[in-house]
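Entry details:
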Amino acid sequence: MVTHVEGPDEPPETLTDPRELLTGYLDHYRDALLRKLDGLTGEQLRSTPLPSGWTPLELLRHLTYVEIRWFRWGFLGEALERPWGDRGPGPRDRSEPWHVPEEETFEELRAEFLETCERSRRIVAEAALDELARPGPHHPAPDRRPSLVWILFHLLQEYARHLGHLDAARELIDGRVGE
C-alpha cells in the first residue's frame, strides 16, 4: 500500500533575497531528510532495498559529513582528522563505501546531524555569499577556491539528489511516498 505524506512548504515563491532563499531551501531539505527517515525501524534504517547497497542510516551519516566537508573543511579550511568519516571501515577516503558502525544508533546520528546543521548555519550567517573558501587541505590552490554561494548551491543539489534516492528507497521499504 502506498501512503502519501506531505511535508512543510518550500520557502515562499515571492522570496527574492538570495541568502534567505538558499538557506531556506537548505533547511527545507534538511527537514525533509529527517521526515523521510521518521518511522523506519532499526532494521529498516540498517538495510537496503537497492542494488547499490547504501542504507538510510548511511545516507544520514553521509549528509552529515557532506556538511562537515563543505562548510568546515572546504569553506573554513579547518584541518579535520576524518573529513571522510562517513566512509569505512577502510582508510577513510572518498573511495570507500558509506559506513555506520553497528553500535551507533539513529538517535545519536540524528543528534550529530542536527548539531552539524546548526554549526553550518552559524558559518553561513557569518560570511558573505561572495566570500571565497579559505585555503586549506580541501582547496590548497588559491585560484580554485569556491565561493560560499557556489557551496550552498552544491549542497542543495546534493540534498535534492540524495532525497530523491531516499524517496525511492522508502517507497520500496514500506510504500511511503512524498514529503
